[in-house]
Amino acid sequence: MFRRVIISLLATLLAAAPLIAETAEKVDPRELKKKTVKTARKVDSFLQKRQARQNTDTDYIFRPQERWLIRTRGDISQSLIKFRSILTEDNQGYYFDLHSKPRYKQHFGFGYRGIVLGFGIGFTKKKSDKELAIKYYGNRFGGEVTFGYLGSLMGKFNLVGYEADIPEGDMDCNYIQVGAYYAFNGNRFSMPAAMNQSFIQRKSAGSPLVTTNFRFVLFGIQEDKDGDSLLNTRSLFVGLGGGYGYNWVPSDHWLLHVSATETLGVFGNTNFRSSLFPGQRVKANGRFIPLVTTGNIAVLYYYKKVYGGAFATVDNMFIPSKIKDSNDRYRISTTRIQGHLTVGVRF
């Protein structure tokens, strides 16, 4: 069936080839150039109107009107994972303390009338940490979707007082993060002014924030000699919360941003399979409210058409859980620390 479809498609293309060639010969290069220029002018006019449109209180927030933007940003990040298991009444159990290698990435962005395209270059091993993130920052709404893999995890394992080192490569982690925010005072407070500089904050303002989060984390240690995983853990978090963000503008040249949010888990659980308990996957439901805590701080300096700044973000997910009809308790905590330095010029 598939072969027939391919043969039919190729036959159609071959039959249409003379007609396509004949049409191409009839096209006047001058007419094509005129149409191209006309289309480009229409697109530019649309982008210019979009850029000039100000949907906020311009005494507080202003969209830059320069046509071109060139910027670069250096990112460094590290992840921490802690897993605790208390299996007996005298608080004996085992735990993992893990951390990834610091990861550095250099980003470059080029913008035209508010539309920015960019790319990043990572300086890690081919089979080390990887991440794909899509982020959007708006004055009212914003969000991100992140898919990641940590292959540089290392740390320590402790079982009832016996401690051993976990070398790099023996343990890995896959994760998915989906988050969004809503700013009530988005008419005067600008989150993108601090995060991606697509707006400029003219006066100090703050806003309450509503947040929502979805997290899925899967991590485990490599199989032992018998083919069993020493530990394979899955954690799921769905939550709703809030916080507050504030942009302080002490002068025309400076911006200081601080924001903090706390997301309470509507649902969160952990289940795992371990060679310590062969042949079963243990499911632990939430005993206490799981939490995601996020904090951001940014400092920006503007001088005419040039700006530069530094950012820091700390994000922590904490899921405590307990097995039903048992004294066994589990806690998983994932922390991500990020730092950024950026420089840009508009003209």
Question: Can you tag this structure with a few keywords?
Answer:
347 residues; 18 strands; 2 domains; 16% helix; 3 helices; elongated; alpha+beta; Lipocalin; 16-stranded antiparallel beta sheet; 57% strand; two-stranded antiparallel sheet
Question: How would you characterize the overall build of this protein?
Answer:
This protein has 347 residues and is α+β, with helices and mostly antiparallel strands. It folds into two domains: 1-53, no CATH class; 63-346, OMPT-like (Lipocalin), CATH 2.40.128.90. Helix content is 16%, strand content 57%. It has helices spanning 2-26, 29-52, 191-195, and strands spanning 61-62, 68-86, 93-99, 103-112, 115-122, 130-137, 141-150, 154-159, 162-166, 171-183, 200-201, 205-221, 232-248, 254-273, 281-286, 291-303, 306-322, 329-346. The strands form two sheets. The protein has a 16-stranded antiparallel sheet that branches. A two-stranded antiparallel sheet has the order 1-11. A hairpin with a 3-residue loop joins strand 6 and strand 7. The longest helix has 25 residues, at 2-26.
